[in-house]
């Protein structure tokens, strides 16, 4: 299913999903939902990782898969400015996955839980034909402090915490039949959620925030669409993961395909008022562009002054055309 | 994987799961976990339904599957004495499941959400080889009022709310090649969660509670093991679903195979002090037996005074031997 198909499907399903109202501070369509329980905000997200779709068992150990299944959900918490508290796991277990492999998966989930201070409190393991791991994470956030995708305003600066392009560059290397750079492969195997940075950006007055799962450009465009604004980003300011530029050169590919279009990065992209930039930088963010008035669009400004539409630079697009 | 295999696996995974302590009022190993947030209890459960394992697409519509995916989790809330509030869904979508079928699945989830007053607030839909639906439900319960599996005491009465044996009798009819009784098939397709009864049983002082997913006997044994007690139940008092006795006669099978061993019933089994029985009955419960001192064991007392060990009457056992 192409990304376009996914987004169309999401639109068709939205009538079945609750929008914000009453105690539901953030409804569907953001990184996570937020419920107000007498002033305590409960942040809630689910992500499913599927064998051969989100990981390959010859590239990732079962512990890597467990780590990633937790990390991608923790990253959703981070993107709301929330801190993860507990997780539950639903595991579809094929006959090929023996008890030792399931233990390794749980060990990886436990490592990620220790890393970000949450606890695994339950789960359901069921027989299935194919391996899939569904993790739900709860987080803690002050209800009025949760950062949505919809608050970006013209004049805000766009900042990024984390590195871009690593995971997709590693997969492109493998697809091209060359040895993958271990640093890049590690970005695919063990993504890092930016919980402290997310909380710091929320405290710095972030007006909108999202984590990079579909790709920097695609996710920035989600913010633009939710906020009703446009964005312009400088290519040379985007923080590429170490090894991405070398990989792109060797593959004879524009590095922006990975950096701006790659996805699976779990960096945070936030918008802040200009006077919030120093606090964002203190949280590890780099400034990469600005929010402007206009129809929702995300534009990449190249060093020579030319521009490119970031909407066309998604990883799926790249995958269809091949390197 | 046999039930025994599942239970062994669960035991091997328990070191990775958090036990109760501090703000975690109920940890892993119960129907749901409960977290104390400044006096508000958040109850949390996940269940996964897999195509060809938990449902068949020629027997259940996609709306039925959606209903059931929510209902089985709501039933976990009911078994804690909690009320469901919100749900998120992780959907593994095979190419054979078109957008209209996904909408039907969501329509069924929405129907169940309306039935029990919760809201679907988000989800993740991913491409996959096989259809699986992972639903996580949150519930609301006073932290000190959550009913665990571990509080049953000798002298307590055992009560049941709901009907037993319907789903397994329908599947046995189909397996035997006879037309399934529609009433029984409906129990398989559209299980009913007992939220009001669960809350009423909690208020009536239930000392332990569980919902019947593995089978009445197997689930009662879970309570006995968690509580360190034994249980004796009268076969003739167990509330069989309408049509189960006729189905058993026609198949020449002991009806207790379905009623006590069937599973997938989502009735509630609770233990209450003798003086709590009237309140339990007012909540729709029937008294079926009593808790006694002894090593964990669940015994079925037959009308002729003979007894049978309920541990041997699970649906899986039946399935292996055939009718």
Please give a structural write-up.
The structure is a homodimer of 323-residue chains. Chain A has 323 residues and is of the alpha+beta class. Chain A has 2 domains: 3-144, 60s Ribosomal Protein L30, Chain: A; 147-321, Phosphoribosyl-aminoimidazole Synthetase, Chain A, domain 2, CATH 3.90.650.10. Helix content of chain A is 35%, strand content 26%. The first copy, chain A, contains 11 helices and 13 strands. Chain A has helices at 3-13, 62-80, 99-116, 166-175, 182-189, 195-203, 216-227, 244-251, 255-259, 277-282, 315-321; strands at residues 24-26, 33-37, 40-50, 83-93, 119-127, 132-141, 157-161, 208-211, 230-234, 268-272, 286-292, 297-301, 307-309. In chain A, the strands form 2 sheets. A 7-stranded mixed sheet of chain A has the order 8-10-7-11-9-12-13. In chain A, strands 1-2-3-6-4-5 form a 6-stranded mixed sheet. The longest helix of chain A is centred in the first third of the chain and has 19 residues, at 62-80. The radius of gyration of chain A is 19 Å and the shape is globular. Residues 317-323 of chain A have low confidence and may be disordered.
């Amino acid at each position: 299913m192409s990304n376009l198909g996914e987004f169309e499907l999401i639109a068709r399903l939205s009538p079945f999903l609750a929008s914000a109202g009453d105690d539901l501070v953030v409804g569907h369509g953001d990184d996570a939902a937020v419920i107000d329980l007498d002033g305590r905000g409960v942040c809630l997200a689910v992500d499913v990782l599927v064998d051969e779709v989100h990981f390959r068992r010859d590239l990732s150990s079962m512990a890597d898969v467990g780590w990633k299944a937790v990390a991608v959900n923790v990253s959703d918490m981070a993107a709301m400015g929330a801190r993860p508290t507990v997780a539950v796991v639903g595991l579809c277990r094929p006959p090929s996955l023996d008890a030792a492999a399931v233990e390794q998966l749980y060990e990886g989930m436990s490592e990620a839980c220790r890393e970000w201070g949450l606890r695994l409190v339950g789960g359901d393991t069921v027989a299935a034909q194919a391996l899939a791991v569904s993790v739900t994470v709860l987080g803690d956030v002050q209800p009025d402090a949760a950062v949505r995708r919809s608050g970006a305003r013209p004049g805000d600066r766009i900042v990024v915490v984390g590195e871009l392009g690593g995971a997709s560059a590693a997969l492109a290397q493998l697809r091209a039949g060359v040895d993958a750079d271990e640093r890049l492969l590690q970005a695919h195997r063990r993504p890092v959620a930016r919980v402290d940075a997310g909380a710091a950006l929320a405290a710095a007055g972030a007006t909108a925030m999202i984590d990079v799962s579909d790709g920097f450009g695609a996710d920035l465009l989600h913010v633009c669409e939710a906020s009703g604004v446009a964005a312009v980003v400088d290519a040379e300011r985007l923080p590429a993961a170490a090894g991405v530029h070398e990989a792109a050169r060797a593959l004879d590919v524009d590095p922006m395909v990975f950096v701006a279009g790659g996805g699976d990065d779990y960096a945070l992209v936030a918008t802040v008022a200009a006077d919030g930039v120093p606090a964002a930088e203190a949280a590890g963010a780099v400034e990469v562009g600005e929010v402007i008035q206009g129809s929702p669009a995300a534009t990449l400004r190249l060093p020579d002054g030319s521009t490119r539409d970031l909407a066309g630079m998604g990883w799926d697009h790249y995958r269809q055309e091949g390197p």
